[in-house]
Design brief:
globular, about 300 residues, alpha+beta
């Protein structure tokens, strides 16, 4: 599938050559850690170290990579791939409750906060490292028998020495949808989650269920959360979102009956049709409406619609 021009979501570039064919090479990770040309992205929870801001005083974030020798003990390691020059890029992950591994030049930034402002290559490395890193920290035991597993494939799989099973990082497909009006080309339906503040609105989203296609998940989730039945689904791109392990697949869809819009009163506290002018004001930082951050595919769905890419 392809996405329309101008609707390329954040965090979708691969960032580097993942060099997946190398992962089974004996000693790959240990060798890369010994190589002075290797660069390491260290993560502390979901935050990465940020490099100095540019010389013009603009706060344009960049990632701060370090040498393997400069990473403190206690990290979980993985081979992420190779840069354009062929140097290894490694991930070294520390849990959130540990002390920050070192003082970063411009502090530590979470993916939600800085991901949308990084270069495409760096945002791709960040989301790869974070997605894999959360699995490295959170899934050390075999889910079948409870035995502590052994890391293999340079951090990309786990082997259970007791039952022999192989385990891999899990990705859960989810849909996210912005709803256009049946009659008004300048109206967009958004919802406010019950856990958010009253003025925060976003697209409708949910996980695909067992045996369900993405298209069916769109129709079901939108109907459940907003009461609206939709047609004319248009794919708008996908985005890895490691909270905790999602692949967000973005769509626009058109309501059959605008008047049917009604919040479910459980997960969604309010639904509302917004005008193109209201969306534009919020994107410009004006008014009371709070929209999703720039790192999210929700932001790209809404801003793309506002720009006329329906």
């Amino acid at each position: 599938m392809t996405t329309p021009d101008g609707l390329h979501p954040a965090l979708t570039d691969s960032g580097i050559d993942r060099a997946a064919e190398e992962r089974s090479t004996d000693g790959l990770l240990d060798g890369a850690r010994m190589d002075a040309s290797s660069r390491v992205l260290v993560l502390h929870g979901d935050a990465a170290p940020l490099g100095p801001f540019d010389g013009a005083g603009e706060r344009n974030p960049s990632l701060h990579f370090v040498a393997a020798a400069d990473v403190p003990d206690g990290a979980r390691w993985a081979f992420l791939g190779r840069d354009a020059a062929g140097a290894a890029i490694l991930g070294a992950v520390f849990p959130q409750d540990a002390e920050p591994p070192f003082e970063a030049p411009s502090g530590w930034g979470g993916l939600r906060v800085v991901g949308g402002d990084l270069s495409p290559a760096e945002s791709g490395v960040f989301v790869e490292a974070l997605s894999l890193g959360r699995w490295l920290l959170d899934a050390p035991y075999c889910p079948a028998c409870g035995t502590l597993t052994e890391l293999r494939n340079a951090g990309w799989s786990r082997h259970c020495p007791n039952c022999g099973r192989e385990h891999f990082p899990r990705t859960d497909p989810a849909v996210i949808v912005a709803i256009t009006s049946a009659t008004d080309p300048d109206a967009l339906l958004l919802g406010s989650n019950a856990l958010w503040g009253a003025n925060r609105f976003s697209c409708f989203a949910g996980f695909a269920e067992a045996g369900e296609s993405l298209e069916s998940a769109v129709v079901r989730e939108v109907r459940e959360e907003s009461g609206v039945v939709v047609r004319d689904l248009r794919y708008r791109g996908s985005q890895a979102w490691p909270y905790p392990r999602s692949l967000m697949v973005g769509f626009l869809a058109t309501a059959i009956d605008d008047a049917a819009a009604e919040a479910d009163g459980d997960e969604i506290a309010a639904v509302r049709w917004f005008t193109r002018a209201e969306i534009g004001a919020s994107l410009a930082g004006e008014g009371d409406l709070l929209l999703p951050g720039r790192a999210s595919i929700a932001h790209r769905l809404i801003s793309g619609w506002h720009a006329g890419a329906a």
